[in-house]
Amino acid sequence: MGKSPHNFFQAIAAASDEKALRLLFMKEAGEYFGAECWGLCLLNEQSQAAEVDIQGGPNVDAFVQRYEKIGRSTDPVLRYVFEHHAPTHEGVVFAGNDWKESELYQNCYAYYDQEHVMMGPIVNHGRLIGGAYFTRASDAPAFNLQDLASLSGLCLHLSARLAVFRPQASPRLQPSISDRLTEREQQIAELVAQGLTNAEIGEKLWITQNTVKQALKRMFRKLNVSTRTEMVARLGDSLNP
Q1: Domains in the chain, number
Q2: Based on the domain organization, do 149 and 208 belong to the same domain?
Q3: Helix and strand totals (H; E) in the chain
Q4: Which residues of 101-129 are buried (b: 16+ CB within 10 A; e: fewer)?
Q5: pLDDT in tens, 180-205
Q6: 110-167: pLDDT as tens digits
Q7: How far apart are the first and last CA of the chain?
Q8: What is the CATH number of the domain that holds 199?
């Protein structure tokens, strides 16, 4: 961060509503991180992008379209944020030259000269509800540990303010079931009820297929069932597909 973030954090705390918060972020955040492109994505109850703001760079719209088409579903940096609820950049997720040799970089980021990427989580009541995104061109320095620490602070303040505007996430299951399943397990159960495969569930929630598989095993044990059909029947009307 090039300048003190405290005024920015105070402005976040004073934002009057979610729209004002998004406008403030888009106006100020890029400068603080020396980013060429930056954005904010807020998710709906189905963990799908509901509000997306992106700006910076001459080809930002084309970059976003290309990323949505070939990058989002395979992005390890994004997956890290979703799985760990922690900020990261490509240097943490990829070793050595693996980033520049990856298909994601060569087919998406390098195509628009966006060499460095950093993302951070926005959470509410233990659930990921969005993310902050920053990129730098090839002639700019890579994001470092100080940038990650600064982004962690920014995401904390964004999460705290959004918690005021979204005081309580809508319950997905009735209390008796919620006592047995975690929030992520509830999401998986609802997608199973919709007939999605493990691969499709992983893509929707931005987690690996193996993570879905292991979660289902835990859920079967908790609910004392052995199949997906039994699980859906056991949960019955508690599900909110």
Answers
A1: 2
A2: no
A3: 13, 5
A4: ebebbeebbeebbbbbbbbbbbbbeebbb
A5: 788 888 889 888 888 789 998 998 89
A6: 888 899 999 999 998 778 899 999 999 999 999 999 999 999 999 999 999 998 887 6
A7: 42
A8: 1.10.10.10
